[in-house]
Amino acid sequence: MKLYDTYLFDADGTLFDTVDLICRCFDYILEKYGGQSLPREQILAGIGSPLATQIVDHLGPGLDYNMILGDYLQYQLQVLEGNVRLFPEVATTLAALQESGRKLALVTSRKRVSLEVLLQATDTSKYFEVLVTPEDTGRHKPDPEPALKAMALLDADRDKTVFVGDAHFDICSGAGAGIDTVFVKWSHFDPSALPVSPTWTIESMRDLCAALPGRFAGKHAT
């Protein structure tokens, strides 16, 4: 695939395998505040949108959502350690891209406080120059505003920027910002259901390094 100067990454489901963690947290609040449970597939379908939106969608109107959101985040922070891991080849790919002079950003619907804990737990904060979270924009993925925010902070060239993600939220955000997109095939989302076709689809994170200069691609492959 093409080599870019700037790489925007989604977090959950793209770099970090947090599906079980997220489902565990939703099971907790759904039982506590709604006395209910939901099929795993229904929980997964909302991943990528802001957490507050997911909670309202799952529990319905009329509750104290600030309290519930706080409870969700506190519970997740309590159980996060040991319940999250990087997908294969993520660390080496990020290192190779960074060392070859690429600019990297995280563009996520995850709240900043939990994102920072996640980055610390996986030792990956060192790879990113910019973090764009829901606190940073008025509109959220799939709107292009988060992608555009990251590009502005990095002074990125639209033609040399790509958005890597696992859901329609990411692909639509990148496409709306006028940049190329990459869909990761380890996603739990059905690629045939994407409303916008990605520019690229990759089987492995290392595919992002295919066009890197030899010494970086070689280091990555070890």
Proportion of residues in β-strands: 5-15%
The first-level CATH class name of the largest domain: Alpha Beta
Helix percentage range: 40-55%
CATH superfamily of the largest domain: HAD superfamily/HAD-like
Largest sheet: 6 strands, parallel
Could you tell me the CATH topology label of the largest domain.
Rossmann fold
> What does the overall shape look like?
globular
Rg measurement, Å: 17 Å
Output the structural class.
alpha/beta
How far apart are the termini?
Answer: 20 Å
Counting DSSP H or I runs of 4 or more residues, the number of helices is 9
| CATH architectural type of the largest domain | 3-Layer(aba) Sandwich
Order of helices and strands: EEHHHHEHEHEHEHEEH
**Overall pLDDT confidence:** 92
Task: Return residue spans where pLDDT drops below 50 for at least 5 consecutive residues.
Answer: none
Q: What's the structural domain tally?
A: 2
Identify the strand order in the major beta sheet. Answer: 5-4-1-6-7-8
